[in-house]
């Protein structure tokens, strides 16, 4: 018995040392990046075998001396889509919907589908960006209001886009879609009889005690200022009808809680995540699940989702087989820094 306990203790010490070694390597990569980009603040959370590690560099803004930490609030932007797709998968597991159901009977009454669209678009098509529906014109919206472009998107806006659509020329082909995830949010509202805000709180935020993850109200002190690629300050996006596509605000501490739940095959969120990891779309360039990009190499399968607001960039990635996950948040719209960080961490530490 004593021998068994000694072996167990040795294994635990070895496992702890392994995790700490990885976290030091990740910290070194983040530190080097920060030294090269001192105006860009970074917060990173990493989980391996249910053990969490955090690192952060930079200040809340260019004018602040307050350091960013694991509790600092960022926009997670389109990482919100991976939360929405998890809710859709939970609804499917609860038999509220079927992923292969057509969307026709799940939409608000204000939508009147053209005959060419009826019994054509499946719920899974929306979640894997292959519905063929026209999307919101962000270029025009940014020209109108560069700080809050989504302020001009209303339910009436969406009704016009959908009701004026007479055909799906690229149905079944990948085309990234904000409106698709907005519709998924409305489908969730229909089947649960609650607002998207209430649903995500009741099924993800509150159960996981993600106390620093916000929807409508995000007026907190420990919050970064975001910056566009030219260095200009950018406001956090206000909450509106497009929320299911990208308007959740969070921090790495809370997002690691989410990653832990995703990697737990027995949790409701973990079971739903496994559903989202099924391949729903594939071409020569990509494989997609529901809201997640599926990346494979000779040894590993990664599930990944990035996000960009007007002034921030983010990425989440996990390996279910190896039981690790990582979340990277930066306070500038800079996909190059974000992608380079993940690539270096993966290739030099996690692969």
UniProtKB/TrEMBL annotation:
Q: Which Gene3D superfamilies match?
A: DD-peptidase/beta-lactamase superfamily
Q: Which family does it belong to?
A: Belongs to the beta-lactamase family.
Keyword Calcium annotated: no
For this UniProt record, the keywords arranged alphabetically read as follows:
Hydrolase
PANTHER family according to UniProt: BETA-LACTAMASE-LIKE 1-RELATED (PTHR22935:SF95), PENICILLIN-BINDING PROTEIN (PTHR22935)
Per the record, the domain of life is: Bacteria
In what residue span(s) does the Beta-lactamase-related domain sit? 41-335
Origin organism is: Pedobacter psychrophilus
Quote one Gene Ontology molecular function term.
hydrolase activity
Pfam families assigned = Beta-lactamase
Protein name, UniProt field: Serine hydrolase
């Amino acid at each position: 018995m004593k021998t068994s306990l000694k072996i167990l203790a040795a294994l635990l010490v070895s496992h702890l040392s392994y995790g700490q070694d990885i976290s030091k390597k990740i910290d070194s990569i983040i530190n080097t990046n920060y030294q090269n980009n001192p105006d860009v603040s970074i917060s990173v959370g990493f989980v391996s075998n249910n053990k969490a590690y955090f690192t952060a560099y930079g200040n809340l803004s260019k004018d602040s001396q307050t350091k960013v930490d694991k509790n600092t609030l960022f926009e997670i932007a389109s990482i919100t889509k991976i939360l929405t797709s998890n809710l859709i998968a939970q609804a499917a597991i609860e038999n509220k919907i079927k992923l292969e159901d057509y969307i026709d009977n799940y939409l608000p009454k204000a939508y009147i589908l053209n005959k060419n669209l009826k019994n054509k678009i499946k719920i899974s098509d929306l979640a894997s960006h292959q519905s063929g529906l026209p999307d919101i014109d962000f270029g025009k919206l940014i020209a109108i209001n560069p700080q809050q472009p989504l302020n001009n998107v209303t339910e009436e806006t969406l009704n016009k886009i959908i009701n004026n659509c007479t055909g799906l020329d690229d149905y079944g082909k990948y085309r990234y879609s904000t409106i698709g995830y907005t519709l998924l949010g409305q489908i969730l509202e229909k089947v649960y009889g609650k607002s998207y805000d209430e649903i995500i709180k009741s099924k993800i935020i509150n159960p996981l005690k993600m106390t620093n993850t916000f929807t409508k109200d995000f007026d907190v002190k420990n919050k970064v200022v975001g910056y566009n690629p030219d260095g200009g300050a950018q406001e956090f996006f206000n909450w509106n009808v497009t929320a299911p596509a990208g308007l959740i605000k969070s921090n790495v501490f809370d997002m690691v809680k989410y990653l832990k739940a995703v990697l737990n095959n027995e949790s409701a969120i973990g079971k739903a995540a496994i559903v989202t990891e099924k391949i729903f779309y594939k071409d020569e360039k990509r494989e997609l699940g529901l809201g997640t990009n599926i990346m494979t190499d000779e040894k590993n399968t990664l599930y990944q989702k990035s996000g960009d607001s007007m002034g921030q960039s983010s990425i989440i990635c996990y390996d279910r087989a190896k039981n690790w996950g990582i979340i990277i948040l930066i306070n500038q719209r800079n996909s190059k820094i974000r992608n380079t960080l993940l690539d270096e961490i993966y290739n030099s530490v996690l692969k």
